[in-house]
Predict the structure of Glucose-6-phosphate isomerase.
Amino acid sequence: MAPSTLICDTDSWQNLKTHVAEIKKTHLRDLMNDADRCKSMMVEFDGLLLDYSRQNATLDTTNKLFQLAEAAHLKDKINRMFNGEHINSTENRSVLHVALRAPRDAVINSDGKNVVPDVWQVLDKIRDFSEKVRSGSWVGVTGKPLTNVVAVGIGGSFLGPLFVHTALQTEPEAAECAKGRQLRFLANVDPIDVARNITGLDPETTLGKFVVVSKTFTTAETMLNARTLREWISSALGPAAVAKHMVAVSTNLTLVEKFGIDPKNAFAFWDWVGGRYSVCSAVGVLPLSLQYGFSIVEKFLKGASSIDQHFYSAPFEKNLPVLLGLLSVWNVSFLGHPARVSMESNGKGVSIDGVVLPFEAGEIDFGEPGTNGQHSFYQLIHQGRIIPCDFIGVAKSQQPVYLKGEVVSNHDELMSNFFAQPDALAYGKTQEELQKENVSPHLVPHKTFTGNRPSLSLLLPSLTAYNVGQLLAIYEHRIAVEGFVWGINSFDQWGVELGKSLATQVRKQLHASRTNGEAIKGFNFSTT
Ligand code: F6P
């Protein structure tokens, strides 16, 4: 494929387009009867099981998708990412979040320099610092231990760490390590959120440690929240408290110092880490190590690294992120399913060469934990629009089963739904079945389900820090696979930047109007 040829102009794409008509003639009820097909649509790796037999796909589909991957030079693009080439061409950067969790002796080059020693220098600094804080040898300005952490950051400087924290807080080993400690996140700039986050934290007694997490150290919301907290702490404990109570994670150490944070208390990362892919950098590792201890977080990094190696070396037929990515392309670009119940920077309008795309390149992701979704939006996915679902289950609960005499434990109840929902979506319910059940004729249309709705199931053995790392890396790499096949840049986000720059113009005028009474100008009538 010539560099500016769109993937949709290749024979492989056209073959898949034609193939859609074949697939439309099938129903998952019948496809699921073919045990050989189902067996070949299950892949195991390092304790994880992916079952994609409930996709509207046959073995012919997956073969055609592998041909599409070849036409898109997927293997070459994965290698270029791991080799540190500037595949984020619009920002002229490498994309090396895989280096953040690489073993100490690995060699991963960006611009001719092995970045792994730099990564480990910061990891060692975090290990050292978090151990000092946790052991009480690093104390606050009044000599009390720092048990509470508020991580201030937004977007990728918030969501990834929050995801890992959510998973770890009930994991027994991690929970034990977190005893007596609190980790909170402040992202939104709404004063209500600021109040919620400092409620119960007394700077004079309990003491709070603030970690300002910002790749650029310029993000308006984060910097405003950071200034608010700096004021809160220095007005309670005096300006000298800032150095003891505030630390920073950023790629911009000059701005960190200007803000008043001691550079010794700054934890670096690098421009080859995209914001949305930064949880394995100090962005996530620092707050999570303060809460759980570095050794727990190291397990999370090892889980992610295991998937990185798998993604890099496994053949496509057995490669979890590749399979997930290709199936997403199939659902979005061929079957026309625009959403998925289940990370991002796809959703581009142009190819990496700037050519307008005549197809959709990104899906709308949403989801819910447990059966909450079932009691809210599942009606739509069962009878309304077709929305491919990812069901992520855990074989062994993090928590003990309390009710011994019950027919099912809480975990069994949860897993019953994990297994039942994919079949309900795949098989549906026919009029004949309803008639056999003596359903009143007037209710038959309401209780009929067409089925044939695709899903895939990912079963984890347990939800340890290691498995959470695996899960994260699978989903990160799935996004890259989709982007590599669609021929877009999955690592920049100009759409997000547009919103930021428009808010900057509004902010300037708000300020001028408040301080000097200047008239608002240059906006449309509505904004003015
Ligand atoms: O708004 C998108 C984004 O640029 C993300 O990539 C990033 O994670 C987030 O904003 C916050 O940016 P920063 O870490 O520079 O404060």
Q: What stands out?
A: The first strand starts at residue 42 and ends at 45. Residues 154-157, 214-216, 219, 222, 275-276, 493, 496 surround 6-O-phosphono-beta-D-fructofuranose (CB under 6 Å). The CA atoms of residues 116 and 320 lie 25 Å apart. The radius of gyration is 25 Å.
